[in-house]
Design brief:
With 500 residues, this protein is mainly beta.
C-alpha cells in the first residue's frame, strides 16, 4: 500500500450531494409498498451519495447548485435550493462517486491529480493505500460514523495507522520448500476456479489434513485448516502458480447454533414483526413453539418463491430455523398470535435452504419492499437466479430482513465451505459460498434472524441467501451467503410473480 501524501491545494474539485435517485431501468414497478415498521438499522443508515467532479463538469439535472470541495457551504441534499450551514459531513453519505473508477487500480498507481482529489475528501487525510480490494485512507482523526461504504466503486477502510491492515484477513504463509500443487493451471483471475478448488481439496484429502474452507482471492487462495496442531510442514506453499495463505477454523467467527427466543424477549433495533396479507421476501417467519418450552420458538426470514423442474412452487426459508422437535409448520409473523402459512417439505441438500409448501390461501410476490435508502428504483421485481461464475467484483448487492430493513454490501469473493456431516459418512460435502463486505464496524448490526434472506442486485437477479455474519474473528464486517448455484444446479428457478 502507498504511504502518506501531502494534498496539493491547487487541484480544484467540486462536490454534488444527492438524495436517492432511480438509476436502474426495466425492473421498477408502478406501485410501491413500504414496511409498516422501519427497523432502526435502515432508518439510521446514510441516504445520500456524493459526486465529486472536476471543474466545469455538467451537473445532473436534479442538482442546481455546486460548490468547490474546499468551500464550507454546500447544497442541502434533502431540500434542493437551501444551502446547508457549515461544512458538509461526508461521513453521512453511502457512496462517494469520483470522476474516475478505482476498481482494479492500486492506490500507489494513481496519478497526482487523482491522489490529490482523494486526499481532499476527508479533512486531515494524510495517506492513501490499497490492497486491490479496499481503498484505505489514513486520517489524523476518524470522522463520526456511519462511514461511506464505497469511494470510486471500491469498499472504503478508514484508519489512523495505515500499517494496521485492511478487512482482508492476514493469512499465514509456509516455506517454499513445502512444495507446490496444480502447476498445470493458471490460478490468477480465473472466471471459473472450481478446477483449482478440486485440486486443493483432493490434495489435502490425500495427505490427511482436514480443511473447512477454500477462499479464492484472484491472486491467491486462503485455505482454512480445521486444527491448530496441523503439521505446517506438510501443506503446499502454492497452488496453480498462486500463493497459498492459511487460516485456522477457530479464527473464522462461525456462529454457534441459533438460539430460540420468546415472544416476550426484548427485540432491539425496532424489528418489523408485522403480519402482511401478501407474502414477499424479507418477512418474519418462525417455527412452532419448542416442546420443551411452549413460549419459545426460532425466528428467521422468508426468502423467495421458486419452482422445481415439475413446476411445483415453494417458498424458501433457512432450514436450521425449523428444527425437527418443532415440527414442520411455518408461521408468519410469529406462532400463537400469527398465522400458519405453510409446511416445510424438504431441505435442498447441504445448503441450509429449505422449501415450504404454502397454504392454498397464501399468495407470495417476488417483489422487494420499497426503500428510499439506496440509489436504486423504489423496489425490485426479482427475476432469476444467477450463478457466481463471471460475477463482477465490487458489485453492490442488497438484503432486506425484518431485523435490519434494507442494507447494502459489496460482493468480493467466493469460497467453498465444508458442510458438517455424520462421522459415519465417508464423503465430505462442499457448498459454494459468496462473501460480501458490509462496511466498517457493521458486523454487530446483522442478527441471527436474517438467516434465509435473499441477496439480490439492482437488476433483480438473486445471487443467493444470507447464511451468517461473523461478529468477531478475521471475517468480522463480512457476511456469507449460500450461492444461487446450489439451487440452479438442482433445477430450481424463480417464479415470475410480476402479475401478482
Amino acid at each position: 500500500m502507498s504511504g502518506p501524501s501531502t494534498p496539493d491545494r491547487a487541484a480544484a474539485a467540486e462536490l454534488l450531494v444527492l438524495s436517492p435517485m432511480a438509476l436502474s431501468s426495466g425492473t421498477a414497478l408502478s406501485s410501491s409498498k413500504k414496511r409498516r415498521i422501519t427497523p432502526t438499522a435502515e432508518a439510521s443508515s446514510p441516504k445520500k451519495m456524493a459526486i465529486i467532479t472536476m471543474p466545469g463538469s455538467v451537473s445532473p439535472p436534479s442538482v442546481n447548485q455546486r460548490r468547490p470541495l474546499d468551500q464550507g457551504t454546500l447544497p442541502n441534499p434533502l431540500f434542493q435550493g437551501t444551502p446547508a450551514q457549515g461544512p458538509q459531513d461526508l461521513s453521512s453519505v453511502r457512496h462517494i462517486i469520483l470522476p474516475f473508477d478505482l476498481q482494479g487500480e492500486p492506490g500507489n498507481a494513481l496519478d497526482t491529480e487523482k491522489r490529490n482529489l482523494i486526499l481532499k475528501i476527508f479533512p486531515g487525510t494524510t495517506g492513501i493505500g490499497s490492497d486491490g480490494f479496499f481503498l484505505v485512507l489514513q486520517l489524523r482523526t476518524l470522522p463520526p460514523k456511519p462511514w461511506p461504504l464505497t469511494i470510486g466503486g471500491v469498499p472504503l477502510h478508514l484508519t489512523v495507522e495505515i500499517a494496521s491492515g485492511t478487512p482482508v484477513p492476514q493469512g499465514r504463509m509456509v516455506s517454499w520448500r513445502n512444495g507446490v500443487i496444480a502447476q498445470d493451471q493458471n490460478g490468477r483471475n480465473m472466471d471459473d476456479w472450481k478446477p483449482l478448488f478440486n485440486a486443493i481439496k483432493d490434495h489435502f484429502q490425500g495427505i490427511g489434513v482436514s480443511i473447512t474452507e477454500v477462499m479464492y482471492w484472484s491472486s491467491c487462495v486462503m485455505i482454512v485448516l480445521k486444527h491448530r496442531n496441523t503439521d505446517m510442514g506438510k501443506i503446499p506453499s502454492q497452488a496453480a502458480n498462486i500463493r497459498c495463505f492459511y487460516l485456522f477454523d477457530d479464527e473464522m467467527g462461525r456462529p454457534p447454533a441459533p438460539q430460540a427466543r420468546r415472544l416476550t424477549d426484548p427485540t432491539p433495533g425496532n424489528p418489523d414483526n408485522s403480519q402482511y396479507n401478501t407474502l414477499q421476501p424479507g418477512l418474519r417467519v418462525t417455527s412452532s413453539h419448542l416442546p420443551s418450552d411452549p413460549d419459545m420458538f426460532l425466528s428467521t426470514t422468508s426468502g423467495v418463491l421458486l419452482k422445481d423442474k415439475l413446476g411445483n412452487q415453494f417458498m424458501t426459508v433457512a432450514s436450521h430455523g425449523f428444527p425437527p422437535e418443532c415440527g414442520t409448520s411455518v408461521f408468519h409473523a410469529q406462532p400463537g398470535n400469527g398465522r400458519r402459512i405453510g409446511e416445510l417439505i424438504m431441505e435442498v441438500a447441504h445448503t441450509d435452504v429449505a422449501l415450504v409448501k404454502l397454504q392454498d390461501t397464501e399468495t407470495f410476490s417476488n417483489i422487494t419492499f420499497e426503500s428510499d435508502d439506496v440509489p436504486i428504483t423504489k423496489h425490485i421485481q426479482l427475476t432469476r437466479f444467477v450463478p457466481t461464475k463471471n460475477r463482477r467484483r465490487f458489485e453492490l448487492i442488497y438484503l432486506d430482513s425484518p431485523d435490519t430493513g434494507l442494507i447494502e454490501a459489496s460482493l468480493i469473493l467466493s469460497s467453498y465451505q465444508a458442510i458438517p456431516i455424520d462421522d459415519n459418512s465417508p464423503e465430505q460435502y462442499w457448498v459454494l459460498t459468496n462473501w460480501y463486505y458490509n462496511g466498517q464496524d457493521s458486523g454487530v448490526n446483522l442478527p441471527e434472524g436474517m438467516c434465509g434472506t435473499a441477496i439480490w442486485n439492482k437488476e433483480g437477479e438473486v445471487l443467493g441467501f444470507f447464511k451468517y455474519a461473523p461478529k468477531d474473528g478475521v471475517m468480522k464486517d463480512w457476511c456469507a451467503g449460500i450461492a444461487a448455484d446450489e439451487l440452479i444446479n438442482k433445477g430450481y428457478t424463480l417464479v415470475n410473480t410480476s402479475r401478482v
